[in-house]
Design brief:
Tetrahydropterin Synthase, Chain A, 4-stranded antiparallel β-sheet, 5-stranded antiparallel β-sheet, alpha+beta, single chain, rod-shaped
Amino acid sequence: MGLFSFIKGQFIEVIEWLDDAGSMVHRFPAYDNAIKMGAKLVVRESQAAVFVNEGQIADVFGPGTYTLSTQNMPVLTALKSWKYGFNSPFKADVFFVGTANFTDLKWGTTNPIIRHDGEFGIVRLRGFGTYSARVKDPGLFLKSLIGTRSDFTTDQISGFLKSMIVTCITDLLGESNIPIAYLAASYEELSESAMDRVQPGFESMGLELTLLLIENISLPDEVEKAIDRRSAMGVAGDLDQYMKFQTAEAIREAASNPNAGGAGMGAGFGAGMGMAQVMGQMMNRPGENHAPAPSNGAPGTAGSGTISRTDGTGGAGGHAENVPAASADAAAGTVPCGQCGTALLPSQKFCPECGTPRPQKRFCAECGEALADSAKFCPNCGTKV
């Protein structure tokens, strides 16, 4: 190999980057080699090439194939003070920046968000979701975040971007005043509002937030359990239905616990059914008078407005029954309806069941004896009626 061939081999003739590692920024490994004037620069789709001269951003190239010359490197030509037609090798740092969307980036709250809710009071919220971003201004991005690093990935910046997103979402939730019960119906609106708030911060670093999604905003386990109990009560309805629901739950839990055996299941079933019956009886008799009844065989009190009668068996085995005096008098003056046999009170002129007029009393014309409705002869004197 001749001296000319050796010197020519030290010049870089092709500059390109095959992105296969998912990096956001890649520094072309030129080392101390000079770039040949007229070298080929290959910039693929979703890439940008940035030339840096002694730490200062120079020319930026978008997708395409370029032959480097003073004509397509005006900034670098000015910085180097090259004259027109300059054709000597030169040294510069070349950075390739990925401009594609970096998707499925995660964000989540490290600490709970304290928020006041009108229904649940002060609660702690946690949230998480995903976002996508891309490099919008390669030059500004290099100047703001990269510096002299030779390689840069999303992992090195995701923590900082996540903090920006969480801060904006925390502030947004505090100002929204949306009840916790309705937060799930507002995820899309909250995501759009949060994206508008975060976007200026991203653009100040040469980035663009292309998508922000709130996947979930959750409550502490204790609050979620309280909500579940309240929902169960709402499904059960009244207390009677709730007791039945609790009984069914006890049976299910006993059946799912094989270690308890048949005795445990029977005990749970019996306890649940017993409680349901007691509560049902209490609710079905809200106005019942629970005053103690007089003991068997005790005579009625004369001043209490009741009369005492027995079933005729007498002695200690007789069962006393207290009947109101007014009811006894009314029963004594009743007359059976001649059509259907319904007992008619003295004040009733027509039968309330069939509408038949009240039977009129008949008397014997001979002796004046009261006659039954069906009597054909007087039972006292035998006169035909």
